[in-house]
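Example 435, ligand uridine-5'-diphosphate-glucuronic acid.
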Amino acid sequence: MKITMIGSGYVGLVSGACFADFGHDVTCVDKDADKIEALKAGRIPIFEPGLDGLVAANVAAGRLAFTTDIPTSVREADVVFIAVGTPSRRGDGHADLSYVHGAAREIAENVSGFTVVVTKSTVPVGTGDEVERIMRETNPQADIAVVSNPEFLREGAAIDDFKRPDRIVVGLDDERARAVMTEAYRPLYLNQAPLLFTTRRTSELIKYASNAFLALKITFINEMADLCEKVGANVQEVARGIGLDGRIGPKFLHAGPGYGGSCFPKDTLALVKTAQDYDSPVRLIETTVAVNDNRKRAMGRKVIHAVGGDVRGKRIAVLGLTFKPNTDDMRDSPAIAVIQTLTDAGAAVIAYDPEGMDNARKLIEGIDFADNAYRAAEGADAVVIVTEWNQFRALDFARLKTVMNAPVMIDLRNIYRPDEVARHGFSYTSVGRAD
Ligand code: UGA
């Protein structure tokens, strides 16, 4: 089967490499000639564990290629995936669909023979209808079926998520596409991954409902964490206690500095906007968005409180900048707001992240960067763990204590046990544990 992926960003690249690994013949297309040149030279523009090896193996096997040539790659394809970005539109939070619509036009101009056009980008309900309308208007002769097939990949675990999915959701209104999509995902189907066929609009909503529900779940446990601190309870045990109930489940109940990333913030906002447009507001999600936004700066204030209420002239080491570990992605990372709150209050911040520093330098001004955790901690009045990278899970406390100005740790991810840190003579503050 010949698959063309329009957009070689995070989703396009991971999906393209995985489809190639299933044995399909995949071409990843992008307008960015520099990106395509880099990919052809074996350089992967994002940090995703295992992706470089997967791309290299499939390029070597002749199943994966990169090009800027949309016409040829679309003409030859049985299936064309649209995997372009849908950023928040400036000003109103709606998803910006201009790249999706642009791709639809270009595909329509170049298709030949029956072609299944699949939207993988996260798009609001009704986008499939609009993509189909644009394509039919651009090329009334085109023999196409427009399908929705949202992705549920987590950054840092994307390849595993693609190859071992909880479910594959396919929304279609043209039955001819069903066989083609079944074939595309056949290796997973044989592994018994549930393949859920539904309508296009339902499929589009499943994507937003999934992300919104997960964001809600995180926000719920974050509010419970705040309550735990007030009433003298332990949020990790609350999470375990409720998570053992099979109806609730244990995942996505880690309290922390608030969710970030390229998906939850943008998708929750877009769902709120869609719901308002349809006069069916989703108040729970509106509140989730507001609570999460407040939380990020509140975590900065928590740090200030932990160092005695005044950070002017103090030196704070921040460990972890990316929105989560195993990625270099800084988009909407809680670290940005935490650091901003600290520098606004007059602190000098020195930060370290294993993969995110290049991106962080572009986004955060007025701070210093160190090349490891201990360097960052030199002369610091407190060390703050914002992202739970593995290398921060076993810090050498004795060494930290020697280099720091004062042994103070604020752990916004609860990666340590309070008694363990206290034993090393540190003052320790974490989230939702009445320490
Ligand atoms: C999320 C979803 O998990 C994927 O299923 C989805 O495909 C993806 O968005 C998307 O729409 O593309 P991702 O943003 O990569 O994936 O990362 P998550 O692992 O979901 O984490 C999101 C944020 O929530 C991070 O800031 C993380 O630290 C935070 N989080 C997560 C918590 O604070 N607590 C938790 O228990 C879990």
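Summary: The longest strand covers residues 2-6.
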